[in-house]
Amino acid sequence: MDTWNFFYTCLVSLWLHRIYIYSVMAFGISLWIAIQFFTTKAKRKDENSNGNLVSSEVVEGKLVNGYATLQPKEVCVAGVKIFYGSQTGTAKRFAKDLAEAVTCLNLPVEVINMGDYDPDDCLAEETTSRNICVFLVATYTDGQPTESAAWFCKWLEETANDFRFGKMYLKGLRYAVFGLGNSVYVDHYNTVGRNIDRWLWMLSARRIMTRAEGDCNVVQSKHGSIEADFEAWKSKFLSCLQALCRGEKKPCSGKCKKGKCKSQGKQSKEGSNHERGAPEFENTEAEELFETTSEEEADAEEIGGTDSVVDVEDLGKIMSHVKKAKRERELEDGNAGMSLLGETSGRKEAGERREMITAALRDALTKQGYKLIGSHSGVKLCRWTKSMLRGRGGCYKHTFYGIESHRCMEATPSLACANKCVFCWRHHTNPVGTEWRWKMDQPEMILREALENHQNMIKEFKGVTGVRAERFEEAMSAKHCALSLVGEPIMYPDINRFLRLLHQRGISSFLVTNAQFPEEIRNLEPVTQLYVSVDASTKESLKRIDRPLFKDFWQRFLDSLKALSEKQQRTVYRLTLVKAWNVDELKAYADLVSLGKPDFIEVKGVTYCGDSSASSLTMANVPWHEEVVHFVQELTQLLPDYGIACEHEHSNCLLIAHKKFKINGDWCTWIDYERFQELVKAHVDSGGTQTFTATDYTARTPHWALFGSSQRGFDPLDVRYQRRGKVRDVSGC
């Protein structure tokens, strides 16, 4: 009975306190469920972060028929293949630099010259190789690929537009593109990189990041130089590559807008949000360094492709988005100052302008022997200055015009040029541009440091065997300045002030321009002798030889010659003959002479300055001296007012002079430098009202300098030096 009472009492107690018991049980069950949930989630997260590493051979267990088996994890990135198409070697250098960085990530890497690669046989293999393909491609003349990349680009373009291959031909290939270009070529800027990116995308290849574009134009480069542009892109690429190796980032699906790249995961999330009416989500880690999508591709992507269906109700939204994007592009272009033909630059104040000479350019020019001055000028010792110091003869200007070569300073106030001539003796290491967009140094400082550097270089010859003491002393005081070192001196905004400073010091001026700045020629104050380079006589050959930056280069060329005809002081056409390029254009040259009416015409065989990847010029293009003589004789037959006056065989050069300089039967091509200084001083003192002409400061040409003399232009006061066992060089200076 007692047992039953106890049991009954317990049951009643439990029933009366049942609410508390239920609460404890519910709390315990909830706590267990929560622990299980968070434990499972942490375990899955740990598996995802540790199970997708590519470089380590991680395995996971699976049950097959009740038994545990080990299966290798899928490899995300097997290696990197770097393709480069280079003309001057920059893309090749970048490829090697990138390869070293990738090697540090313990990934296999291969650097491939596009010229040695057959895309028809090999490129399709990359769709299954799990390699990342990187394309470093430069844009060459007229937006064409470099010689080594020409076949690759031709094949890729044809494949992208050939229906037989299909639009899925390269599906599975993952790639990144870095283009090398120069924004001064506004119509062809980074065309090759953009085309390769578009053609790969058309064949369903996948970007791992948006295309980047390096700019050789330091003014417009986003990071100050193409090297800095590459370094910025490289760091982004390596970060993206590491993320791919960890399996954290998917390749770009091609939906890139405004230079921003979104992963597939985020895109799918965006798609679901969009369907639910959620606002558009943009990747906060998007790349904002480069504007990369081509216009054609962007247009297609804006509307989802040509095959996509667009609801009529969405057209207004789409058009609004397109207009907004267009306004943003125009605003960005305006801020970047992309106009090269006189539009206002984004950096209006001088303090915001960049220096013309970058660190890399400074190193390259210094190695070539330049003494750089300030941020855009330079001076260098001419080899004829060294020659005349030793009494071994002067340059052709000594023969033609009577300058003292050992007292001539070769300099330039502007290292930039508006052409990229095939025979450029500086191998295109100098910057290019169509107008002044850099910081500007004062002409007083430029001239002062130019003279100091020139004197210091002369001092290095003190005590050198063969140097004549009297000429060494004379050389310490410069008497002539050849503004023809490199670049386009007339681009310097203060060129007139610089010339006045030269004349105030009693230094004569020989200024050379490439006939692309007619207004600057008209506004130029008197110089001792003004040169215009006439490298070709037709539009086609001029474009092929000079490779000018201006789109209206031919009209500028003709206008420059007309402007030259208006000058009252000595003017010269400088013709550079390139065999198989421009030696057969006699009649056209004669027409140009009648247009510019120069006082003199220098005809010189092109000088071969060694192999250069920037030019196809070879020794086969250098005419023999006899060929130059023959050309000059034929040309003068078409010019009744001109005759052959002088010859300098060693420079492979002849001088044609207007017959007004043949006075009393004697050629008077030499210059009375003291008389010129008197005339130019009177001109300045009178405020420009007192003028003078070329015939006012002439001097008689000595017999040894005349064409047909036995000396053939070599000064008999000097001794010709010939190295033993070396064939006489008549290719020029």
From TrEMBL:
UniProt keyword NADP, yes or no: no
Spans annotated as Disordered: 249-305
All residue ranges annotated as the Flavodoxin-like domain in the record: 80-238
Protein keywords: 4Fe-4S, Iron, Iron-sulfur, Lyase, Membrane, Metal-binding, Nucleotide-binding, S-adenosyl-L-methionine, Transmembrane, Transmembrane helix, tRNA processing
EC class: lyase
Biased composition (Basic and acidic residues): 267-279
Source domain of life: Eukaryota
Reactions listed under catalytic activity: N(1)-methylguanosine(37) in tRNA(Phe) + pyruvate + S-adenosyl-L-methionine = 4-demethylwyosine(37) in tRNA(Phe) + 5'-deoxyadenosine + L-methionine + CO2 + H2O
Biased composition (Acidic residues): 282-304
Sequence intervals crossing the membrane: 20-39
Cofactors (names): [4Fe-4S] cluster
Residues of the Radical SAM core domain: 401-645
EC number in record: 4.1.3.44
Pfam families named among the record's database cross-references: Flavodoxin_1, Radical_SAM, Wyosine_form
Similarity comment text for this entry: Belongs to the TYW1 family.
UniProt function note: Probable component of the wybutosine biosynthesis pathway. Wybutosine is a hyper modified guanosine with a tricyclic base found at the 3'-position adjacent to the anticodon of eukaryotic phenylalanine tRNA. Catalyzes the condensation of N-methylguanine with 2 carbon atoms from pyruvate to form the tricyclic 4-demethylwyosine, an intermediate in wybutosine biosynthesis.
Protein name per its UniProtKB record: S-adenosyl-L-methionine-dependent tRNA 4-demethylwyosine synthase TYW1
Source organism per UniProt: Phasianus colchicus
